[in-house]
Amino acid sequence: MKKIAVNIIQETCEPLGSNTTEALIKILMAPSSVGKAGFPVIQEDSFQHFLDRVPHLLRDGQRLVEVLERLEKKLGESDEVSGESLENILRGTDVLKRVTLTTGVTAPSDLWLLRQVLSTFDELGLNELISTKKWFSRPEFAKTHELDPIQLKHDLKFLLSRGYLENRGEEYKISGCIQARNVFERCKALPSDIPRNIIQNIVEVLRGDVSQMVERFLDYEDTDKPVPGWVAGVQEVEVGYRLLPIVLAVRYLDANRGMKAGTDIANTGLLFSDSMIKVLHSAGAMKSNGQITQMGERMFTRGPGPYGIIHAYHAYMTHHQKVLRGNREGFWVARGENVAASQDANSKSFKQINDAIDAFCKKYDFKYDVYVEHAVGQGEATRQRFERNGEEHIQYFGADLEDAAIDKSVENQKKGKLPQNMKFVRKADIGKPEILIDGIRKEKAETENAVMVVGNGFHEVRNQTNEKMIEVFSEYAKAGIIICFTEESGLLDEDLLFTGWNTYHAGFRYVHEISGQGLRPAIDSEEGENARYSWKKCATYGGYRVLEEFTTRTRTIYPSPKKDGYNPAISVNYFCIPETIAKKLGI
Up-side HSE of residue 421: CA atoms within 13 Å toward CB? Predict the structure, then answer.
């Protein structure tokens, strides 16, 4: 039976090439199992072999998914492969398909950033220096080339996390993979007259306009040669850089939900230019017959969340050379046209949080009459709560640092999507609790027993130390505010390298570091006194009780059980009540 299974795998996967086929046989014939969450998992060694040997990014990824589906069909039709042997292989194909389709959501934002970092490095002659394959000291490199050592560290760590560099402490050199040599040699400086934020220009083309600037932006040399392993080659970097704004332009037009697999691109109501179609085809988002692929559906329907979060930092990339020279003045993160896209990323988390609030209230007979959404965006958490409870017994508040986000919420309020009694607190830095607290009290509402929902907002506190975050939580706790907040887990370089494209945290970490924001780990580190505390520890030291019963988590970063047991969740929805309330409720 084993030999027959191997023959079927070999025959079906042959179009992917002999090396890839050999790797897939090794992975799919290795033991698989079902994890604690009920999903199929493969062994750690099998996943690493997949990363090292199987091309699965963009167009290569779509090809792989199609082959794996044909394989599943052939195995199902075979009378000679059955029972546990069949189940074992199918668990493996399920994992590989999920990991591959995930790349469509997680990789383009990293590729968009990579292309711009490489552009700046080329402008400064750094790509050529790195290509010499010699070890260099980051502090000395910064001093010699008059670069800001902190920004250089962020840039090098980002390139390291995506497989292009190796390091030993503060020393770096180009990695040994062919993709690294190619991107440093061939990714030249981008044209200075084409804006990094080109979404609106693409929107107008999709509406029927012609734009020579957009055509120039979309122009690149197309090749069709798979790269070995997970590290992106020049083709993938160039395609990802152009794909991201196309997808966000479609989301801006609120047309992304119609981009389902099997849909003809000509029937979407959008006027995709030939150059856009070329990008979509190279990205694996579209077949040669014009139909959207499974990969394309994932990109258009689930991609806008992470894409929008990362693209909001376009000002930092526009001025990347200036930042690398030590000048950070005059620009800031700008969510603007990406407010809706960014909100997409939190929709599922907000449902989990609102469910947890209801469960908590039911169990402890707890009542609240003030509901706050901080980092409000379009008010998705509030919209969900409004649908459940109306506004007769709840006073709603929305708070945000950016006027663009508040304006979007006000617009939704006028459309009836948000409660009419909702009040807004502008210029509300989440790291300055007094702004929100004063805003609530000015409206004659009480903060005691208020519920505040935050979607990825606390990491935006600038220049945060452990002590500063504890102080922030302490002020909210003193005001008696229950906090339910979502945060992505801060991951180390090693985590990012060994997950490949299974998360978008490399770019997520990078943009938050260069803008002075800080991610925190889901699990406390034991790396000395200066280790960054977890969010749970900060909240606990700040006077909160983190209730595990109502705290929820997304999937783990590895699709395989780790030998050392370390496998944190990608993000966590923390449910925190002030100690004063916990004591009153007898918790």
Answer: 15
Q: What percent of the chain has pLDDT over 70?
A: 96
Give the number of other Cβ atoms within 10 Å of residue 269's Cβ: 9
Structure tokens at 341: 């896209």
Residue 408 pLDDT: 87
Q: What SS3 class is residue 313?
A: coil
| Average pLDDT rounded to a whole number, residues 144-165 | 96
Q: How far is CA 242 from CA 70, 196, 197, 328, in A?
A: 30, 10, 11, 26
| CA dist., res. 157 & res. 493, Å (int) | 7
Torsion sign across C-alpha atoms 347, 432, 411, 255:
negative
- Global pTM reads 0.89
Per DSSP bridges, beta strands 165-168 and 136-137 are unpaired
Coil, strand or helix: which one is 583?
A: helix
C-alpha to C-alpha distance for 436 and 448, rounded to whole angstroms: 13
Residue 239 tokens, joined: 């395609």
DSSP 147-212: --HHHHHHHHHHHHHTTSEEEETTEEEE-SSHHHHHHHHH--PPPTTS-S--HHHHHHHHTT---H
Burial of 262 (0-12, 13-18, 19+ CB in 10 A): exposed
SS3 string of 244-285? HHHHHHHHHCCCHHHCCCCCEHHHCCCCCCHHHHHHHHHCCC
Fold designation for 349-585: Rossmann fold (3.40.50)
Tell the residue number behind the tokens 């929305």, with chain if given: 398
3 state DSSP class of 461: coil
Parse the chain into domains and list their residue ranges.
Answer: 2-103, 106-332, 349-585
Gap between the Cα atoms of 436 and 451, Å rounded: 13
Find the farthest-apart pair of alpha carbons in the chain and give their distance in angstroms, rounded. Answer: 75
Q: What mean pLDDT do residues 575-585 have?
A: 97
